[in-house]
Amino acid sequence: MTTSNAAGPGPAVLDELTRLRDSIDNIDAAVVHMLAERFKCTQQVGRLKAEHRLPPADPGREARQIARLRALAESAKLDPAFAEKFLTFIIAEVIRHHERIADDAGNGTA
To answer: Partner of 40 at 20 to 30 A CA spacing, among 15, 72, 93, 110?
Structure first.
């Protein structure tokens, strides 16, 4: 059972909450920037694949990446199932981009 403080949390609690939320905001910004960099690289991969008529998806690589990320998650004390879901979502988006790049290359719009 939790108890409530009729006066609300004290200034020290509010300061700590603000500090933690500021850290979360900074981490979120870093994640967005890292994802942007990752997608810049995967766009280059997509163009290279399209140029050489390689398939947009590489199931073997994807499976190795998922296994690698699950192991990294475990060592970082992050739920490996969550890490896998996250990477699977990213991979699906990358494949979608690669398909679009290949379509554009096939149509002469790349």
So the answer is: 72
Tens-digit pLDDT profile for residues 33-45 = 999 999 999 999 9
The conformation of residue 52, written as its DSSP 8-state character, comes to T
Place of tokens 């163009």: 47
The distance of Cα 35 from the centroid of its chain, to the nearest Å, equals 6
Q: What are the structure tokens assigned to 96, written together?
A: 């979608």
> Could you tell me the pTM of the whole model?
0.80
Rounded distance, CA 78 to CA 103, Å?
Answer: 37
How far is residue 90's CA from residue 68's CA, in Å, rounded to a whole number? Answer: 15
Distance CA 14, CA 101 (A): 49
